Amino acid sequence: MSQDRSPFDIAIEQFDNAVRYLDIEPGIADVLRQPKREVTVALPVRMDDGSLRVFTGYRVQHSVAMGPSKGGIRYHPNVTLDEVKALAMWMTWKCAVADLPFGGAKGGIICDPKTMSRDELERLTRRFTAEIAPVIGPMVDVPAPDVNTDAQTMAWIMDTYSAHAGNEQLAVVTGKPLGVGGSRGREEATGRGVMITAMEALRARRMDLTGVTVAVQGFGNVGSVSARLLQEAGATVVAVSDSCGGIYCPSGLDISDVLRHKAESGSVVGYPGTDSITNGEVLEVPCQVLVPAALEKVITGRNVDRIQAEVIVEGANGPTTPDADRVLFDRGVTVVPDILANSGGVTVSYFEWVQNLQAFYWSEEEVNARLRDYVTRAYREVQAVAEAKGVDMRVAAYIKAISRVVQAVTLRGV
User: Fold this and answer.
1) Is residue 68 part of a domain?
2) Are residues 162 and 195 located together in one domain of the fold?
3) DSSP state of 115
4) Which of 116, 142, 302, 414 has the smallest number of Cβ neighbours within 10 A?
5) Across the chain, which distance is largest between two alpha carbons, in Å?
6) CA-to-CA distance for 128 and 398, rounded, in angstroms?
7) Residue 279: how many CB atoms within 10 A of its CB?
C-alpha cells in the first residue's frame, strides 16, 4: 500500500504520473528521477556534560537547472536520506510551479532537538555548516528553516558560512531574523499562501469564503497562521489539532483565543466549549475546506472514504498518498497539492534572497502583495492545465513544474 511506501518512492510515482502527459526525452526523465548530489556528513559535537557525540547530517541537491538549489534543513530523530531525497525533489517542483529561479534541495540532521540545550544546538548547527560549506552558497544552494529549525538556526548558519568565506554572506540562507537580513512577511508566508490557494479553489468552485467551514490538522506555524487568516477572511474554523490532540466546535472557534490557550497550556486540547477529538478525527469532521498542515501520509486509502471536505489544501508536505488522490479525484474533491498550496514560504524566501542581494528591503505590504500575485498566478496556471488535460490538480502542478525544468535542462544541454 502506498501509505507504507517510502517518501522517495511516492515522489517518483508522482513524477511518473505527470511525465506520461509530456513529450520529453526518456533520458532527461531519468536525469530528473535522481538527485544531482547527495552529501552525508559525520558531525562530532561536544555536549554540555563534556561527552562527545557524533551526529549524521545530509544535504541533497536535486536540481540546479533553473538556478541555485533551495530547501530547508530539518532536525528530527527520524530523518533519513530517503526522506531528504524526496523532499529535495518536491522542492524542485515547488520552485518551478511558482516560477522561481531555483532548483530543489533539502537537508537534515538525525537528532532530537527537544533533548538538547541551545548551546548544543548551536554547536551542532555550526559544525554542520562547516561540513556542508563547500556545497552551499548564495549562487549554489540556499538553505532555509524546516522542522525543528528556525530563524535563529539560520542566523548561526549565515554567521558560520560568512566566517568561512571571509566576508558577509547574508544571502546564503533565508528565513533569517529581521535584524540580520530577514524579510518582513516571511513568518506568515506559508500560511498566507495556503489561505490564498484556498480562496482560489473556492472561487473555481463558485463558492464564497464567507461562512465556509474549515478544519486544520496541525497548529504549528503553517496551520495556526492558515486558520487565523482564513477566519479573518470570513471562514468559520470548526476544528484544529496539534500533536496532543484536537478540538471541535461546529459553531466555530475563536482562533486568536485558541492561540492564547495554546501559549498558556502548551496545547489546543482542553479549550473551553469544545469537544475533544483525535488528530485523525480532525480530518473527518464535517467541513468544506480541510487543511492538513502536520505530517506526511495522513490521508490514505484507509481513511479517505470518511473525509467530508470538498476542498483539501495541503499545508504539509506529502499529506495525501497516491491511492487516496485517485479516490478524491473520482469524488470531485479539489486537492490543492503541497507544491502549490504551501509554496508561499519559498516564494517569500525568494523575495528575501533578492532583497539580500540588492541590499534593498521591502515593506510587509509590498511582500504580501507580491506573494498574492505569485501564488494566484501559479494557481490559475495549474488550474488551466488540469482543465485542458482532464487531470487532478497534483498531476497538473507536476506537469507545469516538470515542463519548466525540462525546458531549462534542454536549453542548457546535458
Assistant:
1) yes
2) no
3) G
4) 414
5) 62
6) 32
7) 17
Residue 359 is assigned to a structural domain of this protein: no
Q: Could you tell me if 193 and 331 lie in one domain?
A: yes
44 is in which domain, residue-wise?
Answer: 2-16+25-169
| Domain CATH code at residue 89 | 3.40.50.10860
CB 292 within 8 A of CB 319: yes
Q: Rounded to whole angstroms, how far apart are CA atoms 355 and 183?
A: 8
Instruction: Check pLDDT > 80 for residue 111.
Output: yes
For 343-394, write each residue's pLDDT tens digit.
999 999 999 999 999 999 999 999 999 999 999 999 999 999 999 999 999 9
Query: What values do phi and psi take at 342, rounded to 5?
Result: -105, 25
pLDDT at 1: 42
Residue type at 141? D
Q: Which positions are catalytic?
A: 106
With 0-12 / 13-18 / 19 or more C-beta atoms within 10 angstroms meaning exposed / middle / buried, residue 179 is exposed
Contacts of 380 (CB under 8 A, 6+ apart): 200
Checking DSSP bridges between strand 236-242 and strand 69-76, what pairing results, if any? Answer: unpaired
**Cα(283)–Cα(315) distance, rounded to whole angstroms?**
13
What is the rounded CA–CA span in Å between residue 230 and residue 102?
A: 29
Position 360 in a domain: no
Length of the chain: 414
- Rounded Cα distance between 325 and 327, Å, is 6
Domain membership flag for residue 161: yes
Same domain, 118 and 200: no
Total number of domains in the chain: 2
159 and 225 fall within a common domain: no
> Do residues 31 and 110 share a domain?
yes
Report angle CA 247, 251, 254 to the nearest 5 degrees.
Answer: 65
**Separation of CA 345 from chain center:** 7
* CB 147 within 8 Å of CB 112: no
**What is the rounded CA–CA span in Å between residue 67 and residue 30?**
20
For 161-220, the pLDDT digits (tens) are: 999 999 999 999 999 999 999 999 999 999 999 999 999 999 999 999 998 999 999 999
Give the residues across from 239 on adjacent strands: 215, 248
